[in-house]
Specification:
Blueprint (H helix, E strand, L loop, with lengths): L2 H10 L6 H10 L2 H16 L4 E9 L28 H13 L4 E6 L6 H17 L3 E5 L5 H9 L2 E5 L18 H13 L3 E3 L2 E3 L5 H13 L4 E6 L16 H14 L4 E4 L8 H8 L3 E5 L1 E3 L2 E4 L1 H10 L5
Parallel strand pairs: 1-2, 1-9, 2-3, 3-4, 4-5, 6-7, 7-8, 8-9
Antiparallel strand pairs: 10-11
Helix pairs in contact: 1-3, 2-8, 2-9, 3-9, 4-5, 5-6, 8-9, 9-10
């Protein structure tokens, strides 16, 4: 039995692949064979449903953190929109739109290290009103919150908290100095301790090695993530990474497949940056481990049209 077949059997039983074995098969086996196995594992653990979510940028710009990739950091001059808490009616319209489109989850995302305690109540009121008009699952991404603040969100109807690790612990200090990888993990642990699900992934293509990319997958899985968003860096002019070379489509395809072998039970979520991919690469990725997608606009960049995504996913055999 070769190594790839052993990994396949283990993953179908829910046993994750090691990083060293993942790197070894990436060098020794055809990328399509690896993707086919990742797709088989996706079908086993996630079925044929495409878990869709949509986000609203609920507070934009003027972020105190120095994350090198981020258009909203005050350390960068990108010309992104800056505003405080989004109007209540605008959120309700977005909730109704996404509900009518059949999107499964809806999240409010805020810029900044964390939402101030005084603003938590305002957001909780918005979430409560959203729950009154729609059965859509509610998520939040509001920074490095405490357990008490997370509990307030949970009591308001939020059942999943999003806190990206962004990259591996070994690479994170090269990209951000104003908070730590451990700060992220502390928030994730707090969310899980009060019974929230956790959505936790990151961005690939920021200068990390393949090993560091795979460390991110392993760290997210070990942190208890049920959903791992995979963003592809979209270098924004004015950020510290504006001249970062783009990683190849083959690297992206391989990364997704290897993520699935390392986190077989998790939902891998197609997130930001996928507009740069060819149709061929997109289809290979969707049949190479992905079982979730962020649809609609993405914070400071334009995303994929929801209706077009529905047509594509349906064509590829996914249930919307």
């Amino acid at each position: 039995m070769n190594l790839l077949e052993k990994i396949r059997i283990d993953a179908l039983e829910g046993k994750p692949c090691s990083i060293s074995d993942a790197i070894e098969i990436s060098k020794s086996f055809d990328i399509n064979d690896i993707c086919d196995i990742a797709d088989e594992i996706r079908k086993k653990w996630n079925g044929d449903s495409m878990d869709t979510c949509s986000i609203v940028n609920a507070r934009s710009g003027r972020c105190s953190e120095d994350c090198k990739w981020c258009a909203q950091s005050r350390f960068h001059n990108t010309g992104c929109n800056e505003y405080d808490i989004i109007p209540h009616d605008e959120v309700m319209r977005a909730v109704e739109l996404n509900t009518n489109k059949g999107v499964h989850r809806f999240s409010l995302v805020t810029s900044g290290r964390k939402v101030a305690p005084a603003d938590i109540k305002r957001f909780c009121d918005i979430f409560r009103d959203a729950a009154k008009i729609s059965p859509i699952s509610l998520c939040a991404s509001m920074g490095l919150l405490t357990k008490d603040e997370l509990q307030q969100l949970k009591d308001a109807g939020v059942n999943r908290y999003h806190c990206n690790l962004e990259t591996s612990a070994s690479f994170f200090p090269h990209l951000c100095t104003t908070h730590s990888h451990e700060d992220k993990l502390r928030t994730i642990r707090a969310a899980r301790e009060i019974g929230m699900e956790v959505c936790c992934g990151g961005i690939i293509g920021m200068g990390e090695t393949l090993e560091q990319r795979l460390q991110l997958a392993e760290e997210a899985r070990e942190a208890g993530a049920c959903s791992i968003p995979i963003n592809i860096l979209n270098p924004v002019k004015g950020t510290a990474l504006e001249n970062q070379p783009l990683i190849s489509e083959e690297d992206i395809i391989m990364t997704v497949a290897l993520f699935k072998l390392i986190a077989p039970k998790c939902t891998l979520r197609f997130a930001g940056g996928r507009l740069r991919l060819s149709d061929k690469a997109t289809r290979r990725i969707l049949h190479g481990g992905m079982s979730g997608a962020l649809v609609g606009d993405m914070l400071t960049t334009v995303g994929n049209n929801i209706d077009q995504d529905r047509d594509l996913f349906t064509e590829l055999g996914f249930k919307w």
